[in-house]
């Protein structure tokens, strides 16, 4: 299912309590699911407002400043994308009960496994699930890459500072310098991701 990301910027004079409540509401505003998705193919008829998988790319001259994402994964490990500078990084927002997230998971896993030797890293950001739900998803799909536990929204806020995120899932591809080079709104097809990665790998350091 596709869940809109609304702006996280509160009014300057809003109290911290109000900001916290609004932020929580935004995190919980998900497209509702009429029945549980139990396999990667359970997308149609699940009550989701689907994204169209639209792709936007930025030419080298149009890319903004580098993005650095930091946080802790669901097993307690530290994540810092600055350690991956010089490589291509694919960042995917997701949560466990999101049907398009489940549908695209095998393609993301294949990309991580098949392209690691070429200097391609994958990173998830999950702003919804607790560790139990997130780790169960990762076990089900044999996810080999980390996901930042982001219930406070800090990683999403950092990414939104560089590129609009209208929905979950959204996939953002960073070039070798850590700059946003491409974005896919909605389910990302494996062939699309492969082509985007190929283009960025061809931009020699």
TrEMBL record:
The keyword Transferase does not apply. This is TlpA family protein disulfide reductase. Pfam families: AhpC-TSA. The lineage of its organism: Bacteria, Bacillati, Actinomycetota, Actinomycetes, Micrococcales. PROSITE patterns: PROKAR_LIPOPROTEIN, THIOREDOXIN_2. Residues 1-32 form the signal peptide. Keywords: Cytochrome c-type biogenesis, Disulfide bond, Redox-active center, Signal, Signal-anchor, Transmembrane. Residues 33-202 form the Thioredoxin domain. It is found in: Cell envelope. It comes from the Bacteria. SUPFAM superfamilies: Thioredoxin-like. GO terms for molecular function: antioxidant activity; oxidoreductase activity. Coiled coil: none annotated. GO terms for biological process: cytochrome complex assembly. It comes from Oerskovia turbata. The keyword Endoplasmic reticulum does not apply. GO terms for cellular component: cell envelope. PANTHER family: THIOL:DISULFIDE INTERCHANGE PROTEIN DSBE (PTHR42852:SF6).
